[in-house]
Amino acid sequence: MTMPEHARDFRSLRALVTLTAAILLLAAGTQEAEQSAGPQTRADLGQVPRLQSASAGQLRLTADRAARLARASAEGLDYVPGEALVKFRAGASVAVQAQAVDGLARRDATGMRWIGDVALVTSDVEMDARALAAALAADPSVEYAEPNYLARLDPVATGYAAPLSGGAVPNLVPNDPDYASRQWNFDAIGLPRAWDISPGGDSSVIVAIVDTGVTASAGTMTFRLWTGSSFVDAPIAYATNTDLSASRFVAPMDFVFFDAGGPVIDMDGHGSHVAATVAEDTNNGFGLAGIAYNVRIMPVKVCLGYWEFMFIRGEDGVTGFANPDTSSCPFSALAEGIRYAADNGARIINMSLGGTGQSNTLRDAMRYAIDKGVFISMSGGNRAETGNQVGYPAFYGQQFGGAMAASSVGRNLAKAYYSSTGSYIEIAAPGGDARSGGSGGVIWQSTVRQPDVNPFLTMPRFDRYEGSGFQGTSMAAPHVAGLAALLMSRGITSPAHVEGIITQTARDLGASGKDDEFGHGLIQPRAALFGLGIR
Length: 535
Hints:
Largest sheet: 7 strands, parallel
Mean pLDDT: 87
Number of strands: 18
Number of helices: 15
Number of domains: 2
Shape: globular
Distance between the termini: 41 Å
Structural class: alpha/beta
Radius of gyration: 22 Å
């Protein structure tokens, strides 16, 4: 992605520290680093043992799955090697299903992982997931088969950070001390006037953050980690956000790293930042503010990053370092997470991620959630300068009343330079643009302290938080989710009705009427909350 000299690669703190780490490792004479190749792939990778900390539970992520995901990252694949999602025709028996996968998977069909009525098939024979899906689809008992595509976190700015300020400041709306100096985005959409109507929404409304996780508990666990010269048993601390009350979390679930019963931990900071835009504690005289600051948050972890891969490598005794830019969000996990959120009381789902693979499984999971009364907000994509490819699940939003893909505007309310365009863009919201505003032009929220999770560290920690400035349509989507939460707090039950209100009250930007850059325009919370009679 081409970027200006003053802001080259605003995913960049990670890129900078990665370079620093490489230099330090070379200076130390370390021969084990695998900076470009990603994690070592071995044919005999087996099931990962339990963690040394019994309280942490067992890992869902196996070494075999980690190796497949690492291969996808190293080779630039948009799917998980050797994995396909299969929907069998109605009436297909277990025996028929087994016959369909026999010789392709070499695994017991009765042990397939089911996502609704779709099975995740893992093959040890055919690693080309497109070829695997085509072979499965040729069986008469199969309705459809497709690769298990990968979404990745949209590139975001991580180059700005500041301590959270404490102590009430008078004459601010709200009274959070960092609000006036940093949160231009809320003033740009008139949120203080919207809060006059609906001050922070209602605790009966649950917003699911389908992302890298939002840490929902506190503790310490022990992982085996490679330091560059040896393995150490590293105590890893984790804690909830100091500006997002733990009492507001409900039904957290991890679909990619820990098995059910283990903690949900954000080891990246992306999910925490997104959750803070939706719901960071507000009017508490501390830090920054959130949009729907009374609603509850459901952390749903579907994405893996650098530290998850480092932990799995250590548990399996693999030396070297993971690809520092790896983020992997299998569509199978997204579909599971969406269905889980819908089944466990979420009224809004936010997905600030995307991939380029079309998936019936993902689209059907979205339909399932919307049919259960869930509104879905999605990032529109950050591919404007890298081919402007269509993004998924964003593309599916236009097919449903009750799901919307958001583009991003900067402080000047112009389209952010990175923001993807296309007919599937339905709405615009602040996402930040460092080209036009530097550190003052990005989206500031409280999240995991970024120096604590960067790859140059020997041991990370996930228990400290700070105000961080990110940019991306990842940041625009939770503005829409937050507005939806305020609307549902006013008694709206229909996702399609929520979309209709947001659409009809939007401020038109760009070409007259709906366009490919801004959709129907910039969200207007106060007008939307006044528009309850709109149909």
